[in-house]
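Researcher: Go.
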Amino acid sequence: MLTAETRRRDFPSLEGRTYLNSAAEGVPPLAVGEALQQYFRDKQLGMDGRKPHAAQWEAAKALTAEFYGLTAAEIGICSCSSEAYNLAAMALRLKPGDEVVVNDLDFPAGATPWLQPSCPAAPRLWRNREGALRVENLVPLLNAQTRLVTVSLVSFFNGFRVALPEVVAAVRKHSRALLAVDVTQALGRVPLDLAGADLIVSSTHKWILASHGGGLVGVPKEMAAEWTAPAGGWFNLEDAFGPNRFEKAVSKPGAASFTVGMPNYPAVYAIRAGLEYIRGVGVANIDAAARPLVLHCLAEVKKLPVDLLTPYEPDHVAGIFAFRHPKAEELHARLHAADVHVMSHAGRLRIAIHGYNTADDVEKFLKELKSALAAVG
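Model: Structure:
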């Protein structure tokens, strides 16, 4: 994706580091830092800063719409993916007898709103099979009572990428459910085709190289009535300051209902800059550069004495793979000491390869991992 010169220019903090942890925290280019500085300059204008804030807001929505395949009017921005899913749960107004399908490769944000004791719907668990979510295991969970199926396009846990067209077809054939898709681990890393998704959600501090504090929500206009969150606030309301404001509150329809208060403008500036940077490079170019590195690295790790958690199926691989080892924490410590940065959690090591990574990064990781495995026995 980058030449040595542009990598040093845009990502100076990567110099001398092997950073393979973008699935947890993306490293922003300097353009994102400049956007945050611009926010501060605009904020210093006081109330007059609201006009440039609004321009950044509209630009961030338009860019998100490009990536989602929607229009800017179908985009909302909230504080994080967890807030988005909690507002989505409010919008559904579930009743006893309803069912919601969650899965065991998903991040908690997308599943737990429907697992709370206060939720009247019954959860159904789509279980992975050897690290993969197979549509044939989803179909028996679908019926006339299914109100929602929620899934990540790419799993945070092991990087498995679902076959979204197959999921859409199964949900439409076997139920009348809505389909919510989390693209946090895909947006900015792989080309997206989200046709058939009724709700799209992403956080902003990972692959799009922006900041914390953002949740990007997409609601196709034909689904706006289904996804209108009945939340208090003001930015999300049709007439927050009108003469009847203390008699009733009416949410704006669809995605706009997910921004319940003053937007997090610092994050909005960063989102705009991050998405502009990604668009300037091109997601297809990022994937073309990084995908061979992922597949090579995964194939080499498959040969090592570790418990690979990611199926070696190229069609279902994006930017992440993961494995377990009894001494994972010691492996992680040794890798970190060698300035090789990966994620470690509960005995699992996760590797994430973005467009700013190089073949040298992969080779250093493999070398240091083999050395660490030999050292820990």
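Model: The chain has two domains: 4-20+283-376, 32-279.
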